[in-house]
């Protein structure tokens, strides 16, 4: 790395003062400062983008591992369910011992053997209602304003009414 001490910076400043001149030196110094600032921001943005992409790769790997674990659990559950179903059918001999053939729900009663995927429903929120941390009774008691009003509207509201 470049070692810039106070003596080297003083030498660079002296040479710049001689070469550029005292009239243009402040403008050149400002320009160099802004360019260095832009370069630092660009480097920081690139570093942040690289770290974000690395995090995204890690998250993708984690997602794949979780999905494979979920598939393994689902397959083991299906195997267990099928063995339990076979055992129950073997013990019962036939389903007519447990259910009557006239029962229409007996056919649809086996739906618990095949797992159904859960459907995500987001919580219902009333986003138009603004909920404050301070209760309304406290605001009324201590005179805290609950409605925003412009200065002109506030003056017009509290101006005495004209009586004719």
Based on secondary structure, the structural category is mainly alpha
Biggest beta sheet attributes: none
Q: Please, how many helices?
A: 5
Quote the beta fraction: under 5%
* Pattern of helices and strands: HHHHH
Instruction: Name the poorly predicted regions.
Output: none
Shape: flat
Helix content: 55-70%
Calculate the mean pLDDT score and round it: 80
- The number of E-state strands comes to 0
End-to-end CA span: 85 Å
Radius of gyration: 38 Å
InterPro entries: TatA/B/E (IPR003369), TatB (IPR018448)
Region (Disordered): 76-124
Membrane topology: Single-pass membrane protein
Family: Belongs to the TatB family.
Task: List the topology elements.
Layout: H1 6-20, H2 25-92, H3 105-108, H4 136-142, H5 151-158
Keywords:
0% strand; mainly alpha; 62% helix; 164 residues; flat; TatB
Commentary on this structure:
InterPro entries: TatA/B/E, TatB. It is found in: Cell membrane; Membrane. Among the domains are: 1-54; 55-90. It is 62% helix and 0% strand. It contains five helices and no strands. The longest helix has 68 residues, at 25-92. By secondary structure, it is mainly α. 0% of the residues are buried.
């Amino acid at each position: 790395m470049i070692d810039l001490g106070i003596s080297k910076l003083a030498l660079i400043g002296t040479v710049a003062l001689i070469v550029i001149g005292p009239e243009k030196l402040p403008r050149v110094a400002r320009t160099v400062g802004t360019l260095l600032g832009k370069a630092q921001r660009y480097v920081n943005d690139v570093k942040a983008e690289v770290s974000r992409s690395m995090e995204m790769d890690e998250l993708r790997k984690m997602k794949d591992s979780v999905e494979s674990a979920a598939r393994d659990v689902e397959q083991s559950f299906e195997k267990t369910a099928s063995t339990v179903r076979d055992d129950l059918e073997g013990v019962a001999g036939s389903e007519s011992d447990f259910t009557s053939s006239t029962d229409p729900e007996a056919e649809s009663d086996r739906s618990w053997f095949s797992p159904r995927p859960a459907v995500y429903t987001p919580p219902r929120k009333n986003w138009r209602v603004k909920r404050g941390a301070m209760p309304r009774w406290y605001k009324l008691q201590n005179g805290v304003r609950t409605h925003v009003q412009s200065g002109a509207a506030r003056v017009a509201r509290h101006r005495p009414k004209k009586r004719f």
